[in-house]
Amino acid sequence: MAETGINRSNVVTPTRKRSGSDENWDRDDLVVAKKQMKPLTLRPDQIQDPASALANARHEFGEHGGVNMSIEASATFTVMEPETMRRMFSGELGPDRDFFIYSRHFNPTVLNLSRQMAALEGTEAAYCTASGMSAISSVLLQLCSSGGHVVASRTLYGGTYALLSHFMPRACNITTSFVDIRDHLAVKEAIVEGRTKVLYFESISNPALKVANVPELCRIAHDKGVTVVVDNTFAPMVMSPGRLGADVVVHSISKFISGGADIIAGAVCGPASLVNSMMDLQQGALMLLGPTMNPKVAFELSERLPHLGLRIKEHCHRALTYATRMKKLGFKVIYPGLDDHPDHSTLKSLANKDYGFGGILCVDMETEERANRFMNLLQNYTQFGFMAVSLGYYETLMSISGSSTSSEMNAQEKALAGISPGLVRMSIGYSGTLEQKWSQLEKALSRMQDTNLFQKH
């Protein structure tokens, strides 16, 4: 199938139904297109700012002039002429010219969210999916064939780790070498020229909060012809891997981008050629595996993206404040915004200005029993947050990673990844005032009876 669906054009295509014949465009169609044309023109100082890029992305208006776009809830789409359908299936006519076939392929509402995600990450194109894991698995299956090889970070979300270590070797004959992503020599040595297809890592790792030096890792991979795929779920706005050299950026939109803990969604951001190949009728992973996003979900998410920057700044500001104060109290705090974090200078050099160092912090309580007691007090005694997995919610969410989101790893794998039995991952929310929530945290600390928690680290 020819490349049809996504390009960098910011022209808002006409909403009225057209025939497949260019001669049947009337003057009103052309006038509408010209009036709504808005080229992407960024000043040099805006290039690295994802909020500026989002603001410059095309704005889709509603069918009847509403400031918000209409929801195209149709599964299938009509044509005006019989010949048009053949031309659409051959790839001659596509969404870039406002021709749609079926919503598992392209849907106007989902396509609009995809444009916003591409703007956010600074990539040529994007496609939104039903979940973060569907985005990750589809990209890997598109880039790798049977007998292929992946080099991946040792510290990954448990589901991704299981996909790479168990499912793909069994089902696809695709193997993975796991390495410390901060050991660049190990990364280089793990790449098998001619066989390794992908270098995969998280910009800020889940849950150990290790920061990847994206430009250097991209240089290593590209020198050997390897595609770089980065999961940026922990750091939207904070980091822009696509602008730092990564070929593909994936997201679990369910987290910070959604912000409401009410939606499951994902995204693949990358070159138009890749996105279109993933939608190919015969070879496309997205097309054939079918992780389709509901257009009603896409509409809701598109309404949340404009204030993502404001939310991220507050998540990060509070995370840094709490991490700093907890460290002073003697806790073993892991947060890349702290000067003593081994990757602090790396993140500081790569982060987009003014967004902070991430909204996640970890507290190592060393044992699961202490960690459980700590979380129980924070939720049930002081109402500081909730014991729940996931992240990016407006309330603070807390979980013990080793026995929850990283439970797919065995004890040795967890130790190598830096995940202790008592590691509490905290996604810092922004509900209430900062001092109000801090007082709740302090109240929980006063109830802790184990003095070992207060030993200086």
TrEMBL record:
User: Has the keyword Endoplasmic reticulum been applied to this entry?
Assistant: no
One GO CC annotation:
cytoplasm
One GO MF term = carbon-sulfur lyase activity
Q: Where is the segment annotated Disordered? A: 1-28
Give cofactor(s), names only.
pyridoxal 5'-phosphate
Which residue intervals are annotated with compositional bias (Polar residues) in the record? Answer: 1-13
| Modified residue annotations for N6-(pyridoxal phosphate)lysine | 255
A Pfam family reported for this protein in Swiss-Prot or TrEMBL: Cys_Met_Meta_PP
Q: Which UniProt keywords apply?
A: Pyridoxal phosphate
Q: Which biological processes are named by the entry's GO terms?
A: transsulfuration
Q: Write out the similarity annotation.
A: Belongs to the trans-sulfuration enzymes family.
Q: What is this protein called?
A: Methionine gamma-lyase
